[in-house]
Amino acid sequence: MKAKPRGTTSGLEEFHADTKARNTANMMRVVETLRLNKPNSKWSYKDVWAGCGLKSQIALDSPWNAHIKMEIDFHNRQIHCSALNQGEGEEAVGGRLAMHEMKDQMKETREQRDQALAKIAQYCADTEHYKKRCNDLERVVTRLKAMISSFRR
Questions:
Q1: What pTM did the predictor assign?
Q2: Cβ-count burial 60-75 (b if 16+ within 10 Å, e if not)
């Protein structure tokens, strides 16, 4: 028995191509508005894809929209270079170094805290063990005393 022909996928391909073109045009429009509204601040990829109403970064990551990512990166690089030329970069670099040092200190203190908590947990477990052992030995002692006192009578 032959399978029934399902038709072509040309309508789906046209819709896909139309969606690609629409998303690209919307993202270019958002880049243009960012040039007007935020010329002196860095742009994030999320500003672009969320600005054109998309729910994720997938359309921006696609190869046919690589030129949009290049524009964003070029703008951010220009902002960074101009900040370095004006001397603001030294403060930013110093701040970044301080943040790295603080993160390293936090990591070290977390490790010390975790080690201390592990030791405390071990001491608590040992305390419980020895309390039980003490109670067992006390019961043995009372039994032996009872046996000794019964032999003396």
A1: 0.51
A2: beeeebeebbebbeeb
